[in-house]
């Protein structure tokens, strides 16, 4: 299961990726996964146990880059894999959210979450591998993650297979001047009714 949080900051694009991998049988010493080639090679994967002792990337092909994570012990049962991605924003106002795809996984599902600042108007496009719109879910349905969102969560979507695409578009609200007025005199009259209610009149 994968969980991805993404946000567009003033200078950078940030994504947090969490994956819970379950391996049955005798276990494995390495895991292969794919990320978009645009993410680059300057990222680090973390795993509390077993520890990652080596990560290698292959040259990108068809827009993806294959990574091999080597562990110090055989991975059996469940393991947590984390990755933080931060890319320069430049002049871009739209970003495709990077997601992990596990090469040899029999099944893969997860969640996509978008964050936005109070002065941001975020447009979200979330589609499954079949091109259909993903169904949004309540943020309370998110599983536990080792991440605290920096901004408010404005959209969460459930994926049932790899290949989903979420695109974020950013537009800031323009700052407008606030009209000012001066009131040289102000009078408030208060009347107490029989029922105990107060009525106010300003002039």
Let me know the average pLDDT.
90
Number of helices: 0
Order of helices and strands: EEEEEEEEEEEEE
Q: Outline the low-pLDDT stretches.
A: none
Outline type: elongated
Report on this model:
This protein is mainly beta and about 200 residues long. The protein contains no helices and 13 strands. The strands form three sheets. Strands 1, 2, 3, 4, 5, 7, 8 and 10 form an eight-stranded mixed β-sheet that branches. It has a three-stranded antiparallel β-sheet with strand order 6-11-9, with no helix packed on it. Strands 12-13 form a two-stranded antiparallel sheet. A hairpin with a 3-residue loop joins strand 1 and strand 2. The model has no long low-confidence stretch (mean pLDDT about 90).
Question: Would you spell out the secondary-structure blueprint of this structure?
Answer:
Elements: E1 2-8, E2 12-36, E3 45-46, E4 52-57, E5 64-88, E6 94-96, E7 101-102, E8 110-116, E9 120-127, E10 152-159, E11 165-172, E12 188-192, E13 198-202
Parallel strand pairs: 1-8
Antiparallel strand pairs: 1-2, 2-5, 2-7, 3-5, 4-5, 6-11, 8-10, 9-11, 12-13
TL;DR of this structure?
This protein is an all-beta fold and 203 residues long. The chain is built from no helices and 13 strands.
Task: Provide tags for this entry.
single chain, mainly beta, eight-stranded mixed sheet, 0% helix
